[in-house]
Amino acid sequence: MKKTTTDTSEYAHVNAKQVSNGKDDHVDPDAHVDAVQTAIGNLGRWQIVICLAISLVKFPVAWHQLAIVFMAPHQDYNCTEPDTAGGYSEDQCTVNLNGTLTKCTEWEYDRTIFPETIISQWNLVCDRTHYANIQQSILMFGVLLGNIIFGSLSDRYGRKPPLMVSIVLQLLSGIGCAVVPWFYALLLMKFLSALATGGTMVNSYVICMEIVGTKWRAAITVLYQIPFSLGHMSLAGLAFWFRHWQQLQIAITLPSIILLSYWWIVPESPRWLLAVGKQREACKILQRAVDVNKVEHVDVPEIVRKHCLHQSLTKTTLDYKASFFDLLRTPNMRVKSLCIFFNWIVCGMGLFGISQYIGQVGGDIFINFAVSGAIQIPGNFVAWWAMNALGRRITLICSNSISGVACLCLIIVSNNMAWLRLLLACLGIVGMSVSFTTVYLFSGELFPTVVRNVGIGSSSMCARVGSIVAPFVVSLSYIETWLPPTIFGILPLIGSALCLLLPETAECALPETLQDGEDFGK
Fold first, then answer.
1. Burial call 421-457: b when 16+ CB within 10 Å, e when fewer
2. CB atoms < 10 A from the CB of 154, how many?
3. Rounded Cα–Cα distance for residues 203 and 237 (Å)
4. CA 421: distance to chain centroid?
5. Alpha helix (H) ranges present in 67-182?
6. Which of 291-305, 422-436, 452-466 has the lowest average pLDDT?
7. What is the number of other CB atoms lying within 10 angstroms of the CB of residue 152?
8. CB 359 within 8 A of CB 368
9. What count of other Cβ atoms lies within 10 Å of the Cβ of residue 96?
10. Residue 185 near residue 283 (C-beta atoms within 8 A)
11. Which of 145, 186, 367, 465 has the fewest other C-beta atoms within 10 Å?
């Protein structure tokens, strides 16, 4: 019978000193041994349980990033102070009293659907309209910083501690958003909540990628987006039941209490433990995974020892310090990097911008939002199929084009045809969803190994820049109704055209060095 518990002394011989001497009669130092994949396989019960548990974190990620649609929706309002009895108001921002224009100071809001919103509570109308957009941009900027800060902490202290810290911060700051009495305090709490959201995003994805074998990483990347789409869809139900923005804020925050169970459920990444020389802890986790997956004839300590031996012998070849400027230094790499960066900006702006704009297409806001979330789920599977059948480049061109044309059609479709406007907006969201999934994998295959992390990180920052700008693009509808769909339509089409400059990466050997990256696609 296999042992289910492990005595630490059993792995006492697995330490950095012994594996780093480079002398072993039974190990080929040139043969790379992936200890994690060799011990527990590509995908088993242990990986599935952990990935399913971690995927729950995507629900609050979607809720916190998209809640602005229901917390600051479009509301009609009328000027009540000064009293318009002695004059009249054309724009509800100023009152003409006997030929003298006077600014409105108090307003009455349409509370038919939402009894209280961020807009009505703090009078974010007229010359204060931009404050609602600033709040959403601060949130997206916070997600960007959260990715950077917690990503750095995870490399230094492991994946699990920063993940737990970000969950606790998300819980506390989320409750703080609902109880603070001042708008600027709300902005601070939203920023802290966004930092936490960025932390949960980066660490949860890294843990999944580091325990799943190479064969399943592309599939997990696609499937990992489904909980976000489910969170998008379920937010409409939460907003329907909790119409007051403070109640909705509490409703999207309290479920994070469940995520505190990660302390007992989610293990530290065994890859990180091996990378920093903590072989004993890695052996314990891998042995537990072997037992759960029921893998037979596996000597975990021996596998770990071989892995560390190879790591110590090849360490000098992996010490290249990557720089962002490596992506732009040579002509071909520069063209490819700038094209892919632009497509990331388009994806960030389009996905979050069109999701927010859908509240203005007409019809029931709750149904519209739920449908736009639900339709992304088959979109994820379409992306999976298309990337394998058509290749990365053709998939990105087609999805960008579909999204762009759908948004441009919104300009000419009458507001009376709410069902058609909803269909076009959903097509735009699905197109952006497929593009986002595709560009993520496309980037990972396009950048050479020595700068792949820098390339993906820089690309992700570009997506956050797009999402920061998105609410301001949506608000352009107050100037001209055709401006937002025009911008959301033209930019994806430009992104499609730029894809013609990129090489196909499907089934190609990935570039390793900077020279490989420069030669790739010539």
1. bbbbbbbbbbbbbbbbbbbbbbbbbbbbbbbbebbbb
2. 22
3. 28
4. 27
5. 68-71, 118-122, 130-157, 160-179
6. 291-305
7. 12
8. yes
9. 14
10. no
11. 367
Length of the chain: 522
| Helix or strand holding residue 103 (H, E) | strand 100-103
Query: What does the alpha-carbon distance between residue 53 and residue 59 come to, in Å, rounded to a whole number?
Result: 12
Indicate the pTM of the whole model.
0.78
**Tokens of residue 358, six digits:** 């859908």
DSSP 511: P
Which of the listed ranges 93-97, 146-150, 211-215 does the model predict with the highest average pLDDT?
Answer: 146-150
Cα gap 217→221, rounded to integer Å: 6
In contact, 17 and 279? CB cutoff 8 Å: no
Q: Which of 386, 392, 420 is nearest to 406 (CA)?
A: 420
Measured distance CA(5)–CA(312) in Å, rounded: 29
Q: What SS3 state is found at 522? A: coil
Determine phi and psi for 273, rounding to 5 degrees.
-60, -40
The string of DSSP letters for 214-231 reads HHHHHHHHHHTTHHHHHH
The residue with tokens 């992996």 is 318
Q: Two tokens at 236?
A: 């409409």
Separation CA 286–CA 148 (nearest Å): 29
**DSSP letter for each residue of 401-461:** HHHHHHHHHHHHS-TT-HHHHHHHHHHHHHHHHHHHHHHHHHHHHHS-GGGHHHHHHHHHH
Each residue's pLDDT tens digit, 49-81: 898 999 899 999 999 988 988 998 888 888 887
How many CB atoms neighbour CB 342 within 10 A?
17
d(CA 163, CA 171): 12
Residue 314's identity, in one-letter code, is T
Helix 183-211 to helix 130-157 angle (10° resolution) is 40
C-alpha gyration radius of the chain: 26
Please give the Cα distance from 256 to 249 (Å, whole number): 12
Cα separation, 368 vs 364, in Å, equals 6
